[in-house]
């Protein structure tokens, strides 16, 4: 019985974590996400071999998020979600 309860609890926690990954970030992250995608697109077109490009864009995202979202970090954008109507 203990193993069944443990397995059930694990599955519940796993499903909550999995679902929370897909929630939309706060609105204050939108300008920072746009800047991140502009940076990433520019890096991929200008210098695709540059390995420091992605970390630099992520660092800029963190700095922007701290400035716009009261020192809270924004998650790394998965896609250009601001173009999708909700």
UniProtKB/TrEMBL annotation:
Q: Does the keyword Signal apply?
A: yes
Keyword Signal carried by entry: yes
Residues of the signal sequence? 1-19
Keywords for this protein: Signal
Indicate what this protein is called per its UniProt record: Uncharacterized protein
Q: Which organism is it from?
A: Heterodera schachtii
Lineage, opening ranks: Eukaryota, Metazoa, Ecdysozoa, Nematoda, Chromadorea
């Amino acid at each position: 019985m203990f193993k069944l309860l443990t397995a059930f609890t694990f599955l519940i926690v796993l499903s909550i974590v999995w679902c929370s990954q897909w929630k939309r970030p706060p609105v204050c992250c939108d300008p920072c996400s746009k800047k991140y995608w502009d940076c990433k697109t520019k890096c991929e077109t200008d210098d695709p071999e540059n390995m420091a490009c992605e970390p630099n864009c992520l660092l800029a995202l963190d700095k922007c998020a701290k400035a716009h979202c009261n020192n809270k970090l924004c998650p790394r954008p998965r896609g250009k979600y601001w173009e999708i109507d909700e």
